[in-house]
Design goal:
This protein is an alpha+beta fold. It has three domains: 31 residues; 236 residues, Immunoglobulin-like (Sandwich); 35 residues, no CATH class. Helices cover 27% and strands 24% of the residues. The chain is built from nine helices and 16 strands. Strands 4, 5, 8, 9, 10, 12, 13 and 14 form an eight-stranded mixed β-sheet that branches. It has a four-stranded antiparallel β-sheet with strand order 1-3-7-6. A two-stranded parallel ribbon has the order 2-11. Helix 3 crosses helix 7. The protein is globular, with a radius of gyration of 25 Å.
Length: 305
């Protein structure tokens, strides 16, 4: 009788602990890791900001959601990121920097192969670059630059490329107006460790693309903090993205700083003697011009040193 009572007590205690644990949100979340999916993007505008959306399931309060992006360049595969913002219901949005006007260089595969058709040589070049350790299929690119900057690119599989057959991929390359962009969403814990990642998508950069941004998103576009993923990105422009709107950077060591490259361009422009700036009312509305002969006269909001 005494033994049976002890067993009943222990069973009751275990049940109480289990019920208490299940009532804690952190334990419920621990039952499943975060999952993230990135929406496809119709297009990115040339020299204007684009918008991306993602959905995160089983997320935790202490995480950071990032929009990771790079241009599809033949030699340089520089990856950057910006923080995404919660909209509610697990939805997040992020702002791309303004894409520079860059033509995608053509590289027809020169190596003779029995299974390669002449009309797909451009597509075959990209497949070779993606699928092998040789990041320079024709041997005509900057090998030193590739050695420095291609390691991250090799680690990011282009799932979108595998989903196209040779004909579709070649046709897509032929009709491109500009270097496209690749992007994905990742979730990071409080230490910066990546705990979830979506598949990589590709989006065209077009002249006639007009994303509809809210005032909040426009405000974010004018005050972007861009994260770096490699040491060589410090002191360099965001590769094939414009400075306009980029105000700060976060290095691979997670230290935030002012953007020394983009800010330097702005300050240099302001230091031209006899700077002429329109007033806030604007010339179209009948505003006047303000002339600054000394950069120290510039308002702090305009980036005066």
């Amino acid at each position: 009788m005494h033994i049976r009572s002890k067993i009943s007590c222990r069973v009751g205690l275990i049940s109480a602990i289990t019920l208490t644990a299940l009532s804690i949100p952190g334990v419920l979340l621990a039952q499943g890791a975060p999952r993230v999916d990135t929406d496809s993007v119709e297009c990115l505008p040339i020299e204007d900001n684009g918008l991306a959306w993602a959905t995160v399931e089983n997320n935790r309060p202490d995480t950071q959601v990032r929009l990771n992006f790079r241009r599809l360049n033949d030699t340089v595969e520089d990856l950057y990121w910006v923080e995404m913002h919660p909209e509610g219901g697990g939805r997040y949005w992020g702002i791309f920097p303004k894409a520079a006007d860059r033509v995608l260089d053509r590289h027809d595969l020169v190596e003779e192969r029995a299974n390669a058709r002449d009309e797909y040589r451009w597509a075959e070049w990209w497949r070779d670059k993606q699928g092998s350790d040789n990041r320079n299929p024709n041997g005509d690119l900057d090998d030193e630059l590739i050695r420095e900057r291609a390691s991250l690119g090799k680690q990011l599989p282009r799932q979108w490329l595998a989903e196209m057959d040779d004909q579709t991929f070649q046709d897509w390359l032929e009709q491109l107006e500009n270097e496209p962009a690749e992007f994905f969403t990742s979730v990071h814990d409080a230490t910066g460790r990546e705990i979830a990642r979506s598949k990589t998508r590709v989006v065209e950069v077009k002249e006639n693309c007009r994303p509809d941004l809210t005032p909040q998103q426009r405000g974010e576009a004018e005050n972007l903090t861009v994260g770096e993923t490699a040491h060589w990105q410090r002191g360099e422009e965001v590769f094939h993205w414009l400075c306009d709107g980029v105000v700060s950077r976060i290095g691979p060591n997670d230290v935030k700083r002012g953007d020394e490259v983009c800010r330097a361009c702005v300050i240099a422009w302001y230091q031209v003697p006899g700077i002429i700036l329109p007033t806030a009312t604007g010339l179209a509305a009948g505003g006047s011009l303000l002339v600054f002969d000394n950069p120290e006269q510039l308002p702090a909001s305009l980036g005066a040193p």
